[in-house]
Specification:
Elements: H1 3-23, H2 25-28, H3 30-51, E1 53-54, E2 57-58, H4 59-89, H5 93-98, H6 103-129, H7 140-164, H8 168-184, H9 197-203, H10 207-220, H11 227-251
Antiparallel strand pairs: 1-2
Length: 257
């Protein structure tokens, strides 16, 4: 296909993805805002007033970047996982596979859809957080780069989950048993400097720790890990997950019956 036709195909997939989650915005955009509002009230206002300061900031200010990042992660992931698996389940993914469409366009289209939903939810949660805390962004470029790369990583992760998934139950296993524990243990609610040395060491194997801390550095200027290290981790995950998704789709793994 020519470059122009590839761009048209990419635009079509992205538009379809946006229309899909915007058509059911009450189910896709409102629940994260309500959930994060409860987090701000319970952990920030009620419990945070007893915690005091963390990392030199009020507890509410400290957890805001982590909660925004948590909403971006879960929504980027779930959007692509559910959408791509639905395409498999309803058998219209086969129409894209037999069309003269590069696999890279399919991957980029679904990834962009997941990123847009994740970023949109992140903006909504950021607006909600302004009701509870005064936030000043110290390093805007770090914030933008971190949120873009993180949403990219988890959109690709959702795509891989959908490729391997054989039922709707399979789509919920990874978020429930892997993604949620890693997110809660990724420094959203605490600094790993509070942990015993052995658990600080174990935490360094959690990739979400680097994403949350790089994002927090962009907002507050503090981080438990070097920011350059966080970008290396993000870059490695983007390349590895994209390459794996491309190989699996090219070979028809999980797609051919």
């Amino acid at each position: 296909m020519s470059r122009e036709r590839n761009l048209i195909a990419l635009k079509s997939i992205v538009t379809k993805e946006i229309n899909r989650f915007m058509r059911i915005w009450v189910q896709t955009l409102v629940p994260p805002a309500i959930t994060m509002t409860l987090y701000f009230i319970i952990f920030g206002s009620l419990i945070g007033s007893r915690v005091g300061q963390m990392g030199g900031f009020d507890y509410m200010e400290f957890i805001v970047p982590g909660l925004i990042m948590m909403s971006v992660i879960t929504n980027s992931y779930s959007n692509v996982a559910s959408s791509f698996f639905s395409a498999k389940f309803q058998r219209f993914i086969e129409e894209m596979l037999v069309a003269p469409l590069p696999n890279s366009i399919i991957i980029l289209g679904y990834m962009a859809g997941g990123m847009i939903r994740g970023l949109l939810v992140g903006i909504i949660v950021t607006c909600v957080s302004l009701l509870f805390a005064d936030i000043e962004i110290q390093h805007p470029l770090v914030v933008v780069a971190t949120v873009l790369l993180t949403s990219m990583v988890f959109s690709l992760g959702g795509l891989l989950n959908a490729i391997f998934g054989k039922s709707f139950d399979d789509i919920s296993i990874i978020p429930t048993f892997v993604l949620t524990p890693l997110t809660y243990l990724g420094g959203v609610f605490y600094s790993i400097s509070l942990l015993p040395p052995v658990w600080q060491f174990v935490s360094q194997f959690n990739p979400i720790l680097y994403m949350v801390n790089a994002f927090r550095y962009g907002f507050l200027g503090v981080s438990d890990v070097p920011v350059w290290q966080a970008f290396v981790v993000l870059g490695v995950f983007v390349v590895a997950l994209y390459s794996l998704a491309h190989v699996l789709i090219s070979r028809g793994v999980g797609l051919r019956h």
